[in-house]
Amino acid sequence: MNATRQGQTAGSGRVARRRDRRKSEIVATAIGILSTNGYQGMNLEDVAERTDIAKATLYHYFRSKDELVGAALDVLTEDVLTRLAARAAETGDASPTALLGALVDEQVRILTESAPEVATVFSWPRPWPPAIQDAMKEMRRRHDTVFRQVVERGVADREFTCPDIDVAMQCLHGILNQSAVWIRPEGEDRAAARAAVVACALRLFV
Fold first, then answer.
1. What's this model's pTM, rounded to 2 decimal places?
2. Which residue segment(s) compose the domain that 85 sits in?
3. Fewer CB within 10 Å, N side or C side of the chain?
4. Which CATH number do you get for residue 76?
5. Does the keyword Transcription regulation apply (predicted)?
């Protein structure tokens, strides 16, 4: 490769990195607005203003509000799944009970400490457009699978006595979703509160 082509390749690489950084900034801004105002309260004008770009420039990255919202939800989902996978990896060859407890603890930590915007965005009460609802169903299915696989393993190993996995999973998600209400950021002993939620959740299965 000659010097000219090397320079062109390096230049396009820098352009791509700048574009990725700006795109990430736009998505992060959208997440912040969604977590405080919900879907109905978010508009591209606010996103552009808070990201300090022209609205016309925003359309170079996302063609519509729904495309941007979809990207924001996907980032939140991938972040949660990555954190859960890392926590599962830390447990090694733990029993289903220990692994499920660790995953519940991590999910509660995410919702109440490390990424509380996940709780506010996914539990926003106002309706979402059909296309976004379909995407959210798939994201929730992927999230459910992380916990469901552990539960199914526990049942197969006869470590869990769970007569109806589907009902128990619905109850588990209810506990997880409500943890953001029960455990406040200003609470003095969040670790103890998380432990109490974990103990309650495990009673559904053990």
1. 0.87
2. 3-202
3. N
4. 1.10.357.10
5. yes
